[in-house]
């Protein structure tokens, strides 16, 4: 039997250097209606991934990934922190949220 995986995973790619961004701290929070609640934290591995971030089961709702990019880009980073807020509509689906990062820009999307 396969081990259940986290409902949310991420991957950070350094598009300027053309390689994974290792060592980026990432936090997963959920919106409670009264504020954000921390669910999990992790750090990207040498492949820029966090495969096990957060619980296996998450309710439908609003969630936030916080990428502490200054740990990777340095203390003078233009984007020292990047927040990505997204909605989970299907609590049975997997949500992969990659971050494409460069010193002066970033983008994200729902991956697979």
Automatic annotation (TrEMBL):
Superkingdom assignment: Bacteria
Pfam families reported in the protein's UniProt record: Transthyretin (PF00576)
Transmembrane region(s): none
EC top class named in words: hydrolase
Gene3D superfamilies noted in UniProt: Transthyretin/hydroxyisourate hydrolase domain
Keywords: Hydrolase, Purine metabolism
Catalytic activity: 5-hydroxyisourate + H2O = 5-hydroxy-2-oxo-4-ureido-2,5-dihydro-1H-imidazole-5-carboxylate + H(+)
Keyword Lyase applies: no
Domain Transthyretin/hydroxyisourate hydrolase: 3-111
E.C. designation(s): 3.5.2.17
MF terms (GO), sorted A to Z: hydroxyisourate hydrolase activity
InterPro entries from the UniProt entry: Hydroxyisourate_hydrolase, Thyroxine_BS, Transthyretin/HIU_hydrolase, Transthyretin/HIU_hydrolase_d, Transthyretin/HIU_hydrolase_sf, Transthyretin_CS
CDD domains: TLP_HIUase (cd05822)
Subunit structure: Homotetramer.
Function recorded in the entry: Catalyzes the hydrolysis of 5-hydroxyisourate (HIU) to 2-oxo-4-hydroxy-4-carboxy-5-ureidoimidazoline (OHCU).
Family to which the UniProt record says this protein belongs: Belongs to the transthyretin family. 5-hydroxyisourate hydrolase subfamily.
Stated name of the protein: 5-hydroxyisourate hydrolase
Originating gene: uraH
């Amino acid at each position: 039997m396969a081990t259940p995986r986290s409902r949310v995973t991420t991957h950070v790619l350094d598009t300027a250097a053309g390689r994974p961004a290792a060592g980026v701290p990432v936090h997963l929070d959920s919106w409670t209606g009264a504020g954000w609640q921390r669910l999990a934290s992790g750090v990207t591995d040498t492949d820029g991934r966090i495969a096990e971030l957060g619980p296996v089961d998450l309710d439908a709702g609003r969630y936030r990934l916080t990428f502490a990019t200054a740990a990777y880009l340095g203390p003078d980073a233009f984007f020292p922190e990047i927040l990505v807020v997204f909605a989970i509509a299907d609590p049975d689906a997997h949500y992969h949220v990659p971050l494409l990062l460069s010193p002066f820009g970033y983008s994200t999307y729902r991956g697979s």
